[in-house]
Amino acid sequence: MAPIPVTPLRTLDAQAAADLGDIDGPVVIRGLHAPWRARGLWTTEFFRREYGPTPVPVRNYPAGSEYDYTLAHTTLGDFLDYWENTPADTALVRDRQYLAEWNFVRDCPGLLDDFDIPEIFSEDCIERLPEQVRFGRMWLFFGEPGCSTGLHRDTFSTSAWLAVLSGSKTLRLVTPEAGGKLRPGDGLWSAASYDEVLRPAGAVVHEVTLRAGDTLYIPGDWYHEVRNPERNLMLTANFVEERRLLSFLSQFETRLIEPISVLRRARNAQVRTWAEREEKTPPTELDDEAFRAREAAWVRGMTAELEEYGRALARWGAERPDGPEHEAPSDAG
Q1: Residues of the chain above pLDDT 70, percent
Q2: SS3 315
Q3: Which of 87, 121, 156, 320 is the least crowded, having the fewest Cβ atoms under 10 Å away?
Q4: Which phi and psi angles does 305 have, rounded to 5°?
Q5: Contact (CB, 8 A) for 62 and 138
Q6: Distance of CA 208 to the CA centre of its chain
Q7: What is the pLDDT of residues 84-105, one digit of tens each?
Q8: Do 181 and 197 touch, CB atoms closer than 8 A?
Q9: Whose CA is closest to 102, among 70, 137, 78, 77?
Q10: Structural domain boundaries of the chain?
Q11: Is the pLDDT of residue 198 over 60?
Q12: What is residue 237's three-state secondary structure?
C-alpha cells in the first residue's frame, strides 16, 4: 500500500504565540520552556537521588505488542535502572516498560518548583470548580521506543499541552469530525484506516515529531496517536479553555451523575414496588405529607435548572446575528 500522506503542523516561535484564542488547531510552539530549571535539572541521576523510592505506574508491553499493555507499579529508582541499562527494542522482541501518566503533583509536589505553566496555557477553567471535584491533570512520561499510545482524544473535551524535555516523540492527529468517523481498532498509522475511512472523508492526517524544546498544543476533541522513536521525557497537562467550557461541564456532569443515576433507579424501583403491592405496605416516609412536599420541590428545582439551560441554548441561537432569525433567504420556491 502507498504511504499515508501527512501534513506537517504549523510551528510558532514563543514570542508569536501570545493569545490562545488566535489559534484554531494544533500547533508547535518553540521556546516556551526555555527558562525552566527542569530542562537542566531533570536527569535520571536527579530523579533517582531525590525520588528513587517513590511508587510509579508503568505499562508493561509484552514482546510483539506495540499498543497492548498491562498496568503495574514499581519504584521510580527500579524503573530508571531498566530505562538506563536495557537496550531500546524497536523490533518488539522482548518485553518493555513505559512510565506513563505519573501524577507527580500528588506524589512529588516539589517538582512543581522547577517549571512554570506557560502563560498562554495559564487559564484553566477547572480551577473555577469546587475544590472537592477537581482532578489531577498534569503528568510526566518517560517514553520508551516500541511502546505507543493508541488513537484517542483527551477526556471531557480538555485541551492539552505537551512539552518535550529530552529525546523525541511523534504524533499524528486528525480533527474531531474525522476522528469521529473512525472505527474501533482504527489507527492513524494504519493504511486500512486511511484508505477505508479517512481518505473517502477527505480527512487530513497531521504529523509532528517533537524534540527537546518543543511544546505541542492540542485543542479539545482532536484525535491523536503517539509513538516514541527514542527514549524521551515529556511533561504534559490538560486544561479547559473558556471557549470549550460548556462541553467540558456537560461531559463532566454526566460522569458525576452516572453513580447517582444508579441510586435514582434503585429509589424509583422501590417506590414502584410499594405502589404496586395489593396488601397494605408498612409505613414509610411517603406517608409523610411534609416529606412528599420537600421531595416534589427538589424535583422541580432539578428540572428547572435543566429547563433554564435549554431556554438559554434556544435564546442564544435565536438572538445572535447568525442565528435562525437572521438566516439568508432560501433560493428555493
Answers
A1: 94
A2: helix
A3: 87
A4: -65, -45
A5: no
A6: 19
A7: 999 999 999 999 999 999 999 9
A8: yes
A9: 137
A10: 7-241, 247-326
A11: yes
A12: strand
> How does strand 232-239 pair with strand 206-211?
unpaired
Half-sphere exposure of 166 (CA within 13 A, CB side): 15
What is the grid cell recorded at 266?
434503585
Q: Which residues, 6+ apart, have CB-to-CB distance to 317 below 8 Å?
A: 323, 324
How much is the pLDDT for 324?
41
Q: Examine the pLDDT at 58 and tell me if it is beyond 50.
A: yes
Task: Name the pairing type of β-strands 149-152 and 96-102.
Answer: unpaired
Do residues 174 and 222 lie in contact, with contact meaning Cβ atoms separated by under 8 Å?
yes
Q: What does the angle CA 249 – CA 254 – CA 255 come to, to the nearest 5 degrees?
A: 100
Contacts for 248 with CB less than 8 Å, ≥ 6 apart = 125, 126, 156, 157, 158, 220, 240
Looking at residue 30, its pLDDT comes to 96
Note the residue count of the chain: 333
Helix (H, G, I), strand (E, B) or coil at 138: strand
Q: Is 117 helix (H, G, I), strand (E, B) or coil?
A: coil
E strand spans, the chain: 7-8, 10-13, 27-30, 55-61, 70-75, 96-102, 138-143, 149-152, 159-166, 168-174, 206-211, 214-218, 223-227, 232-239
Chain CA centroid to CA 103, Å: 14
Bridge partners of 55, per DSSP, are 75
159-166 and 138-143 strand pairing? unpaired
pLDDT, tens digit (0-9, with 9 covering 90-100), for 254-294 = 888 888 888 888 888 888 888 787 776 677 788 889 988 99
Residue found by looking up cell 456532569 in the block: 253
Q: Which CATH number among 2.60.40.420, 2.60.120.280, 2.60.120.650, 1.10.3720.10 corresponds to the domain 7-241?
A: 2.60.120.650
What secondary structure letter does DSSP report for 317?
H
DSSP-derived 3-state class of residue 309: helix
Residue 259: exposed, middle, or buried by beta-carbon count in 10 A (0-12, 13-18, 19+)?
exposed
Residue 165 to residue 232: CA distance in whole angstroms = 7
